[in-house]
Structure formats: C-alpha cells, structure tokens
C-alpha cells in the first residue's frame, strides 16, 4: 500500500520548479490541479523556448502558433487562492466542436 | 499524519441548512451566559483557540491545513477556497471510493458532482435531439441506442473504478488545504482576530508584520484590502472574481444559495502624485466606455465600479487603522437597460 502525500506528488516537477523559481508556485498549482482535481493521469512538463519570458505577450504566442507543429495552446491562468482558469487559444478561426465546453 | 485520521470522518459537502453563522466571530461569555451555562448542558461560546495559517510568500496566499479549521472557515462566512476543489474543500470526500460515481437517490452531492451530472444529462439530451431528425422508427432505434450508450457508460465507469482501485491501491490521504488570499487572511487576522499567521519558518507574524509583508508581495494590497474590508463589514460575502473577469463578486448570503449579486472592479483614484508600490495597480486601466461595455456584457451580475481614493503620502508609520481610515471608497453601479422596457 502506497501512502500518497503532497510532497511525493510534486516530485515529478521538482526539477522544473528549481529551474524556474519565479514561476514555481504557478507550476505546482496547475500541476496539482490537473493531476489531483481534474485527475489527468499523465501530465508532463514541456519546455517551450519562445514562451519563457516573464510576461507572455500575444505576439509571441501568435508566432509560436504559426509554426505548423502546434495547432493550439491551452493557457492556464492562476490566481493566488488556487483558482485556475483554462483558455484554449487557436491559430485562426476553428469550427465549434460538439463537445460540451461549459 | 493527523490529517489522515481526521479526514476519515469527513462529513462531505455542507448542507444548506448548516450555514447558520455569518462570520466566525468569537463571542466572549457574559456573566449571565456563564451563569446559565451551569444549568444548560451545552456551552454557547466557542473556544478561544486561534486558527493557524501559514503564509506562503511565493504563492501570495495563506494556507490552512487543519481539517476542522478549513470547514469552520468555509461554513462561517465562506472564506477561502479548497486547493483541489472549485470552492468548498471536498476533494477527499469526492474521491474516496464510496462517494465516486453518479448519485443515487438521496445521496449528498458536492458542487462538482452536481455540475457533472448536469453535463451528462445535457449530453444525452443533445444526442437525443441531434438524432431526432427523421421518422418515428428511426427515433425508436436511436432511443434504444441511447439506452445502450448509457449502459455502456455505466459499465465503463464501474470498470474504471475497479481498475483504479486495483492499479493504485493507495491509501488516500487528504492533501487538500484551504487557501486564503492575503486580503481574506488579513481580514480574519486584523478585522476579526481569529487567525494567527505564521511565516515559512513557523514564526508567528504580528498584525503589523503581516500588513507590511503582504504589501511587499501583493500589488495594490492596501487598495484591495480596503474594498474587501468595506464590503465584508456591510455584510456581503466577498469572493474572488477572477472567473468573471472582475476583482470581487458579492453574494448576499453565500455562493451556495444564489448567484452573485454584484461584480466589483476596483479603480484607483490618486489625489496626489506619490511614489508607492500601488502606483502600478490598474494605472493603465482603460476606463473607457467600450471597455466598460465589454465587461458588462460578459458579466451577468450588475457591475459595481468601486473607486478607491488613495490619500497622499501619509506620515511615517501610522497605525493600520489610521492608514485604512485615510482611504475613501465610492461606488458606482452600472446596469444596462433597454429604453423600450423602461416604459
């Protein structure tokens, strides 16, 4: 029987938290939200060079999405009380999907 | 470890009837009540133990770990947010195996489960509607298919449940905490006097130390606090408004009863030029008509523009109360109306 606690849960992202100390709090908040609250099973951290500045501008997001590899980005916006709001950003107009978004 | 033992007796989401106390105030016993307590089997005053909160500078939040305190703060005034829940900290209750899956009959449901059920029903209705084009035979066939789909969903759910039980076989520990914003924490500490704030080294912070500390890490802390304190003292339940694109939302009784009455946006008004760290907050606010109309459309609630008039640089080290008194608050209510309906 494994005992799960908050410290072991964050082990996965500890190296990234140490590498990016300024955004470590946001990273752990979103990671916990996705893995525990929304129960996504496999969540991996991917480092994306052009989006790593402190303030994210829409221009850098747009130039990132212009590359053929990525179609969309989901922004996770955090607030100190641990609210996380997710926004999906597409390149250009996309037709609506039938999945319930709300 | 103590959380593990306590959480096994988590009672789950609070019933609406249990929200009886508007604020977690301590009532000190008067002589009469002390006299009466000799005759009544129960005490009417709560303990004088203060709640312990840990201030995380990086996260700009105060964290409550004790399960009892978490429930007390939520029940008596809707303070804070569960770190793994939408509002009330019910993560452990929702994920303990006996409470998973769809509700049957009179089973208690947390807010997240209510939403989940509603979405499933909508999805089914949508499938039914989409397929309802065509003749009756086709409709009958599709209805049978929907029933089959529902059964398949239920089977999948139970398979999933047994799978997760088998593959994880984990003793679920309640790792959820209650997160208070710096404004909420300061209100509980300074305004109500029931919270003790400790820093990362477990040293108790005095009210003045917390005041100074919060200003350094939070942008525009004093302004936001003044508004929070103002509406709380008028009896409103003040919650974070980020999901609505505003600063705060005001509830008459609480988020579990009705939707929010008002959405508040804080706009600073500087009397004189002074260089303090509040200058960056909302200075570039496009307080233009188009901005305001955009916001009014997005928000279902009535919009309240809360102007905080910031005093000029104050004399050296006033007390917190004097500092707060210098700030003035004025509100403007914006509500869209349609002229033809006004007649």
Automatic annotation (TrEMBL), chain A:
A GO molecular-function descriptor: nucleic acid binding
GO BP: tRNA splicing, via endonucleolytic cleavage and ligation
Domain tRNA-splicing endonuclease subunit Sen15: 57-99
Gene Ontology terms: cellular component: nucleus
Pfam families assigned: Sen15
Keyword list, A-Z: tRNA processing
Transmembrane stretches, start-end: none
Top-level taxonomic group: Eukaryota
Keyword rRNA-binding appears in the UniProt entry: no
InterPro entries documented for this protein: tRNA-endonuc_su_Sen15, tRNA_endonuc-like_dom_sf, tRNA_intron_Endo_cat-like_sf
Annotated PANTHER family: TRNA-SPLICING ENDONUCLEASE SUBUNIT SEN15
Family the entry assigns: Belongs to the SEN15 family.
Protein name: tRNA-splicing endonuclease subunit Sen15 domain-containing protein
Automatic annotation (TrEMBL), chain B:
Any one Gene Ontology molecular-function term assigned to this protein's record: nucleic acid binding
Keywords: Lyase, tRNA processing
InterPro entries: tRNA_endonuc-like_dom_sf, tRNA_intron_Endo_cat-like_sf, tRNA_intron_Endonuc_cat-like, tRNA_splic, tRNA_splic_SEN2
GO cellular component: cytoplasm; tRNA-intron endonuclease complex
One Pfam assignment: tRNA_int_endo
Keyword Lyase: yes
GO biological process annotation, one example: tRNA-type intron splice site recognition and cleavage
SUPFAM superfamilies: tRNA-intron endonuclease catalytic domain-like
Family: Belongs to the tRNA-intron endonuclease family.
NCBIfam families, per database record: endA (TIGR00324)
Protein name: tRNA-splicing endonuclease subunit Sen2
Species the sequence originates in: Glomus cerebriforme
Organism lineage string: Eukaryota, Fungi, Fungi incertae sedis, Mucoromycota, Glomeromycotina
